[in-house]
Amino acid sequence: DPRIMAGKRGLIMGVANDRSIAWGIAKAAADQGAELAFTYMGEALEKRVRPLADQLGSSMVEPCDVNDDSSVDRVFSRIAETWGSLDFLVHAIAYSDKDELKGKYLDTSRDNFRRTMDISCYSFTSVAKRAAPLMKDGGSLLTLTYYGAERVMPHYNVMGVAKAALEASIRYLAVDMGDQGVRVNGLSAGPMKTLAASGIGDFRYILKWNQFNSPLRRNVTLEDVGGAGVYLLSDLSTGVTGEVHHVDCGYNIVGMKAVDAPDI
Ligand code: NAD
Questions:
Q1: Binding site for NAD(+): residue ranges?
Q2: Residue 205 catalytic?
Q3: pLDDT by residue (tens digit) across 46-66?
Q4: Is the pLDDT of residue 264 over 90?
Q5: In the UniProt entry, which residues are flagged as the active site (predicted)?
Q6: What is the mean pLDDT of the chain?
Q7: What is the pLDDT of residues 145-190, one digit of tens each?
Q8: Which fold, 9-246?
């Protein structure tokens, strides 16, 4: 099998439905020959995730709430028993109370600050720690981030602060795991209409703004993130670690509104 991910086994965390970024990456990885396992959060999502996993020929579909260490442990024990090793992992998990994804960052509560940081940032370190012993021949870890980590975006608030911490943790993990040949990278996706994004205030406006002002004059697709995901997870990127790779139709390089952008 000449495909770029043939013979590789990976864990995909964060599929909620067929619009999830994790699903875009899973499809692209499976197209390239990868064998996949999936985790889902909560019983309600199981009936969405199981048929999707079936489509890609995956039978390992495990519940996992990253808030609960025993649930994370269980997933990695399952992988250790079934596969004995792991080549890559996709972490596409984030959460914040949607009442705080609007208005001012200044109004963030301590409770939601903690929860947002825990689920959206610490969980990546927590899964990296458990993946490490399974990646004896090296591996690739990938998390999802957003430009709101680097610049202030309306309504992104505490999630922007959590993504900044997540991006810093990518660099620390890259150093800690580099000597065992494990690479750690982030994919900074442009805005996409997913379940998680629906909690962000004025999201439709943000989508339009990005569409009109990105160099490519469009929004990113699941195929865009899938292709870049395969690059970062596969041996195409063996010299790349600690990197945050923008897949945003170029939006992050732009300094101001495009002269030809319509009013929205
Ligand atoms: P999504 O809603 O499809 O995925 C978010 C996932 O997080 C869901 O599967 C949900 O079940 C999971 N999750 C939440 N809390 C969890 C917990 N405690 N334990 C385990 N899983 C939990 O939305 P998405 O947009 O595909 O989000 C995936 C990642 O991409 C997130 O990190 C998000 O911040 C990031 N991202 C999204 C966009 C965008 O515009 N949609 C842009 C850049 C980055």
A1: 14, 20-21, 65-66, 93, 163
A2: no
A3: 999 999 999 999 999 999 999
A4: no
A5: 146 (proton acceptor), 156 (proton acceptor)
A6: 98
A7: 999 999 999 999 999 999 999 999 999 999 999 999 999 999 999 9
A8: Rossmann fold (3.40.50)
Give this prediction's pTM. Answer: 0.99
Annotated domain spans of the chain: 9-246
What residues are in contact with ligand 1 under a 6 Å CB criterion? Answer: 14-16, 20-22, 41, 45, 64-67, 92-95, 119, 144-146, 189, 191-192, 194-197
Q: pLDDT digits over 101-128, tens only?
A: 999 999 999 999 999 999 999 999 999 9
